[in-house]
Amino acid sequence: MKYALNLPNFGPFGNARKLAELAALAESNGWDGFFIWDHINRPFPIDIVDPWIALTAAALSTSTIRLGTMITPIPRRRPWKLARETVSLDHLSNGRLIFGAGLGSGRPSEWAQFGEDIDSIERSKKLDEGLDILAGLWSGEETTVQGQKYSVDRIQFLPPALQKPRIPVWIGGNWPSKAPFRRAARWDGVFPMFNDKTIPALDQIRACRQFLAGQQDLSPRFEFAHLGDSTFNMEPGQAAEHTGPFQEVGVTWWMEPLWPIPYGCSWEEGWPVEKFIQRIKQGPPCC
């Protein structure tokens, strides 16, 4: 199992230079991945940084750690512009980009207030067509996709993505809704959210993995990323004991949350930034 940090792109983290410093700190302390959110606005005023600018700064400050968004809502992006951004970052990072994709939350502050589609069915169409366009444009081959929401006609983008066969795509979705997981099975990984806290996470992971195993053409290298509980207050051995069962049920990436709620604080104020930095320095919860 690999271990990554999962951070918002707003608040004290709404600054590209700060995120780049944290990515470098994470790399030097043994973390395998550094993933940031992709928000453009919040329901309350707060500093926000563009994720691609921040990841560019992070790529220039690191050399080995995997980088990416978790997740990017394709339905409010132009896929061809997103293809240029992601390929550029893939080359800049020497093939370290992982692309997380999904519908997006649909919050009014990021959708309706900008005139974006709020209907989940319409956003699903944009997501699937956008992914097909991205894969085509990443390939460096001439691409034609004629969809209901997006279309490209005989377009070839160069250079192609550095990673082959493509930049890894992990699909985010809320379990037990099945549609996001049928979609994920066609790509390279999944990032599920388990919103029913009355069911143990391990049980939900088992059910999710069983469903994925039943889908056709699931890659043997398929990644399963789990957003875990904070292990900040755990001793190293205790943290490893806590995360071990997740590896046993098939989790391949543990996502350590770095935001206020798991630390007993609110979004609006009192982010425990020093504790976040301390958690990064403690290293992954694997030993």
Protein model, in words:
By secondary structure, this protein is of the alpha/beta class. The chain has a domain at 7-167: Alpha-Beta Barrel (TIM Barrel), CATH 3.20.20. The chain has eight helices and ten strands. It has helices at 16-28, 51-61, 79-92, 120-139, 179-184, 201-213, 236-248, 273-282, and strands at residues 2-7, 33-36, 66-73, 97-102, 143-146, 151-155, 169-175, 189-194, 223-227, 253-257. The protein has an eight-stranded parallel β-barrel with strand order 1-2-3-4-7-8-9-10, surrounded by five helices. It has a two-stranded antiparallel ribbon with strand order 5-6. Helix 5 links the parallel strand 7 and strand 8 (189-194). Helix 1 crosses helix 2 (51-61), helix 2 (51-61) packs parallel to helix 3 (79-92) and helix 3 packs across helix 4. The longest helix has 20 residues, at 120-139. The radius of gyration is 18 Å and the shape is globular. The N and C termini lie close together (12 Å). The model has no long low-confidence stretch (mean pLDDT 96).
End-to-end separation: 12 Å
The CATH architecture category of the domain at 7-167 equals Alpha-Beta Barrel
Low-confidence stretches: none
Would you list the SSEs in sequence order as H and E? EHEHEHEHEEEHEHEHEH
**Percentage beta strand:** 15-25%
- Spatial order of strands in the largest sheet: 1-2-3-4-7-8-9-10
